[in-house]
Design a protein that fits this description.
Elements lengths: L9 H5 L1 H4 L24 H7 L7 E3 L6 H9 L3 E5 L2 H9 L6 H12 L11 H6 L2 H14 L5 H13 L24 H11 L8 H12 L9 E5 L14 E6 L14 H6 L19 H16 L2 E12 L8 H9 L4 E8 L23 E8 L3
Parallel strand pairs: 1-2, 1-4, 2-3, 4-5
Antiparallel strand pairs: 5-7, 6-7
The structure holds S-adenosylmethionine.
Length: 384
């Protein structure tokens, strides 16, 4: 392969050790935190897998918020991510583009100065969630950023997703909504009941100020761009002709069996991306929704399809676990899904070790009644 990019920034190279630490808040890691997303793995995990590897194409067929893709960018490796969830794809796309904070703020300013939004949702939830003027501005951005492709627009869209809802703080506001969690959006009726009970009225939040502050923080240190893209698609239907490149590394984490509310738990972010102004459970096109045999079959389909776009000897690293409410053995499920595919298991390790960061399952509100196992499985693609 000809001249693949390498990390050229001396500062970034010097800081890789710190950056590969779990839970780092290092400046180079900031863009990775542009918006919360369920069950992301820490940046340290793909960084540790790829560090020292020879530069080549990196794929994540369940890319979520694009952590693998951002790690690839940090190291100068070209990369592709695929996710079926529009929220994940919109966040992950922002990990591969570059723009200045000033450029993003100017774009935001121009959109907010444009005419009235065509569509402003009405009803008890919307009145109580956002101040009317803040909601108007959010709707202007929603309409202007639908189908965003320009780099500043892609970043601005992900920035809005990140600040759309969250807790109210004492000083300058960080989020646009009335009091809400930042990781998931409360369902409308429950949110309204909560705000009424607590007497919480929405206050005016200046959208441009919030975006500008956040952009200055997140975009201060961006690694050089690498070739690649994020694809909004179902990985069970990937085809070799979809890709001009062949992949050397696949680092991924499928949904754990039973995890099926990625879109409905992010319903407000989904609305911002053009979805309906209510919770739409039917729009969760997730692998985790099906029965266990169908889930395993779906995973097997993905591993098979992925093998067809990889080069011989490619490395597949899968972080996988179980959520406590489902009594399944994740190792058995994962091994069953790999059976009959060209991937050969090489190594299995516990993902909960200090070097890999905390477990994804811990990010749920569930009380863990038993130690849910989370593992990293390494496999290689057998030479044909
Ligand atoms: C555990 S999360 C991955 C999180 C990711 N590692 C990160 O750091 O953000 C699993 C992802 O798989 C996606 N997914 C589920 N079924 C899919 C399918 N059939 N094709 C592509 N993506 C799918 C979900 O939308 C979710 O974003």
């Amino acid at each position: 392969m000809k001249s693949l990019p390498q990390p050229t920034d001396a500062g970034l190279l010097r800081d890789l050790d710190q950056l590969a630490q779990p839970r780092t808040s290092h400046p180079w890691a900031r863009l990775n935190a542009i918006s919360p997303y369920y069950t992301m793995f820490p940046l340290s995990f793909p960084l540790q897998v790829l560090r020292g590897a020879r530069p080549d194409w990196v794929l994540d067929p369940f890319c979520g918020r694009g952590t693998t893709n951002y790690a690839a960018r940090v190291l100068g490796f070209p990369t592709v991510g695929v996710d079926v969830n529009p929220i994940a794809a919109a966040i992950a796309q922002a990990k591969l583009v570059s723009a200045t904070a000033e450029g993003v703020a100017n774009r935001c300013r121009a959109i907010l100065a444009s005419g009235e939004p065509r569509d402003v949702p009405e009803g008890a939830f919307w009145q109580a969630c956002f101040h009317p003027r803040t909601l108007q501005d959010i709707c202007r951005l929603r309409e202007a950023l639908a189908g965003a492709e320009a780099e500043e627009d892609v970043l601005l869209r992900a920035l809005v997703l990140g600040v759309l809802h969250g807790p109210r703080n004492k000083g300058l506001p960080s989020y646009l909504s009335n009091q809400m969690p930042r990781t998931y959006a409360t369902k409308p009726d429950a949110a309204v009941r909560f705000w009424r009970r607590k007497g919480l009225e929405p206050v005016y939040v200046n959208v441009l100020d919030v975006i500008e502050r956040r952009a200055r923080y997140l975009l201060a240190h961006l690694p050089a761009k690498v070739p690649g893209h994020i694809r909004l698609a179902d990985s069970r239907a990937l085809a070799p002709e979809d890709f001009a490149m062949r992949f050397r590394y696949v680092i991924t984490s499928p949904p754990y069996f039973g995890m099926k509310t990625y879109v409905s738990d992010h319903w407000l972010r989904n609305w911002f991306l053009g979805g309906p102004p209510h919770v739409d459970y039917a729009s969760d096109p997730q692998l985790g929704r099906s029965s266990l045999p169908a889930f395993i079959e779906g995973l097997r389909e993905v591993w098979t399809r992925v093998s067809q776009v990889c080069e011989p000897g490619a490395l597949l690293v899968v972080r996988f676990g179980a959520i406590p409410s489902y009594e399944v053995d994740p190792v058995e499920v994962l091994r069953a899904s790999l059976r009959g595919t060209p991937w050969k298991e090489r190594r299995l390790s516990d993902a909960g070790s200090a070097s890999n960061g905390r477990r994804q399952a811990d990010q749920f509100q569930f009380v863990r009644s038993r130690a849910a196992l989370e593992v990293d499985l390494y496999a290689s693609l057998e030479e044909a």
